[in-house]
């Protein structure tokens, strides 16, 4: 016997993404029969400009398709609700797109059939590849094509889109042509949209039973907050994980407050609970809605507040800029976007000497990390083949956030350069990865980073001043007189003639050093080969915090 408390309607989240003015909101409006409180551009600025500035939500319900009746098993749903997440297309609002894309099961990529793929269309496609497994391409605004050439133009654009998608995870996705708002936004409502019935049939055919797990801690992505006189404050959003029930206590981590759930609604219908994937309104009391427009709600104490993080990292191939250590990027993590400084590193393989770091493929170490490993600092992200030719080498990065962020473990991380020219045609999404280690200590540079064993090769050049005995030479021009030479005692020195030695200590007060040449490398022999102009190469290896790489190094090992 099925549990009577289970909802009869299966919720399926569909993201509507695409370039600005491609007709996403018109498409969502044409598809929808019920609009939620956040639907269709609540922002006054959006109404003035005629574009979506925030996530809009709306929904429509259809009888449960036959293919889902079999896969639902004991969960006896009788209808399927498509919740449409209308993501903004304006380039400066890509952070909102990323936030919206993390809560969708299927993506509709809306393309202006006249203009084809544009910069933001490509960025939306990249975000889709990182966040969902299925996609439908909508060729919109077919009413703008001349009637006698319409089908030929649609066929040509369909072929072009298949070519664009052939190297992506969506290479075999369906493509359908529609006119969501014939005549444009100002046209009378009497003009019927074209192709919407066929699109609904396609959506029903593409729908699947999403993974829905009510267990674990609650995490709800909030997109809107408003008050109802006499009732309290309603927080609307999508349950990303876990479940929520009436009388639960929830936390708003950004404000460090907890509140009791008074009631729960799904598209204006009261329900006793909701679970992962559901779009809900949650009513709480004694809370000012102005304090929370976007963010997350969670089980008390379940989320980390991070000042820094270790992530796995992979460059997005269409990003043309350099990925250099110490650079700043916009980091979208959880449902927040914040600036962070990044430092790249890869792993030193056991048994490798002198910091030799043969690249390890992504496959070998995907999403794993340990403070026990030894790493090698990278001045910039490595591209090319890993050892064995299996993809790019595995790399990690340290992110140091400009302000604390709240996010769950192992969440998606996307790095971008949102400050670049929004009218340019360059991809602004730079890299993606997973959060592997969150650092919650505000004083992480003193407590957490010293545990991170990252080495950096440094090279200094100096000159041999003279030979003092059979096994000792004096070197100069390597250090300033105020340098603490004890930090460098024992480090390896290579002479330009091939001999090796080590630093014994300082010589005098001017920064000169005494170098010991051991064994059979006799210094009387060197006299024949060395002059005062010959160089000494000093290779320094040190472990310590990435944030101190440029400063004078404390020596903890060679």
TrEMBL record:
One of its GO terms (biological process) is selenocysteine incorporation. Its cofactor is Mn(2+); Mg(2+). The keyword Ribosomal protein does not apply. Residues 9-211 form the Tr-type G domain. One of its GO terms (cellular component) is cytoplasm. PANTHER family: ELONGATION FACTOR TU-RELATED, SELENOCYSTEINE-SPECIFIC ELONGATION FACTOR. This is Selenocysteine-specific elongation factor. It comes from Labeo rohita.
């Amino acid at each position: 016997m099925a549990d009577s408390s289970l909802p009869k309607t299966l919720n399926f989240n569909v993201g509507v993404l695409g370039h600005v003015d491609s007709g996403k909101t018109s498409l969502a409006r044409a598809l929808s029969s019920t609009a939620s409180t956040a639907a269709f551009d609540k922002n006054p600025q959006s109404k003035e400009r005629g574009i979506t500035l925030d996530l809009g939500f709306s929904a429509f319900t259809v009888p449960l398709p036959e293919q889902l009746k079999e896969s639902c098993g004991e969960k006896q749903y009788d209808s399927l609700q498509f919740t449409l997440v209308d993501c903004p297309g304006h380039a400066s609002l890509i952070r909102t797109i990323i936030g919206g894309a993390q809560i969708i099961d299927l993506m509709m990529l809306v393309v202006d059939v006249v203009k084809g793929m544009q910069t933001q269309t490509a960025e939306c496609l990249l975000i889709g590849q990182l966040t969902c497994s299925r996609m439908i391409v909508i060729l919109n605004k077919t009413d703008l094509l001349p009637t006698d050439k319409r089908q030929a133009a649609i066929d040509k654009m369909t072929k072009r889109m298949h070519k664009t998608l052939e190297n992506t995870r969506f290479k075999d996705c369906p493509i359908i042509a529609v006119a969501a708002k014939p005549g444009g936004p100002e046209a009378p409502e009497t003009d019927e949209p074209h192709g919407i019935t066929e699109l609904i049939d396609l959506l029903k055919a593409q729908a699947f039973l999403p993974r829905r797990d009510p267990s674990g801690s609650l995490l709800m992505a909030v997109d809107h907050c408003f008050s109802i006189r006499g009732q309290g404050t309603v927080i609307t959003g999508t349950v990303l994980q876990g479940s929520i029930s009436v009388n639960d206590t929830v936390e708003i981590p950004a404000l460090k407050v907890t509140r009791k759930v008074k009631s729960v609604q799904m598209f204006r219908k009261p329900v006793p609970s909701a679970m992962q994937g559901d779009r809900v309104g949650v009513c709480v009391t004694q809370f000012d809605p102005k304090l929370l427009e976007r963010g997350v709600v969670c089980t008390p104490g379940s989320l980390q507040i991070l000042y820094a993080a270790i992530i796995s990292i992979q460059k997005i191939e269409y990003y043309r800029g350099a990925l250099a250590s110490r650079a700043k990027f916009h980091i979208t993590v959880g449902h927040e976007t914040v600036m962070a400084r990044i430092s790249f590193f890869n792993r030193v393989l056991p048994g490798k000497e002198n910091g030799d770091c043969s690249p390890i493929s992504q496959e070998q170490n995907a999403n794993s990390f340990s403070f026990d490993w030894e790493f090698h600092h990278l001045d910039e992200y490595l591209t090319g083949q890993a050892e064995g030719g299996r993809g790019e080498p595995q790399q990690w990065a340290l992110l140091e956030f400009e302000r604390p962020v709240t996010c769950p473990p192992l969440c998606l991380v996307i790095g971008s350069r949102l400050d670049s020219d929004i009218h340019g045609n360059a991809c602004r999404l730079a890299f993606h990865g997973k959060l592997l280690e969150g650092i919650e200590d505000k004083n992480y540079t003193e407590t957490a980073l010293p545990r991170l064993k990252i080495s950096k090769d440094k090279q200094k050049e100096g000159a041999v001043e003279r030979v003092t005995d059979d096994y000792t030479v004096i070197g100069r021009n390597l250090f300033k007189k105020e340098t603490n030479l004890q930090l460098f005692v024992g480090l390896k020195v290579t002479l330009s003639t091939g001999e090796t030695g080590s630093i014994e200590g300082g010589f005098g007060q001017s920064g000169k050093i005494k170098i010991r040449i051991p064994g059979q490398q006799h210094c009387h022999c060197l006299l024949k080969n060395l002059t005062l102009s010959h160089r000494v190469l000093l290779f320094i290896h040190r472990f310590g915090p990435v944030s101190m790489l440029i400063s004078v190094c404390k020596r903890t090992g060679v």
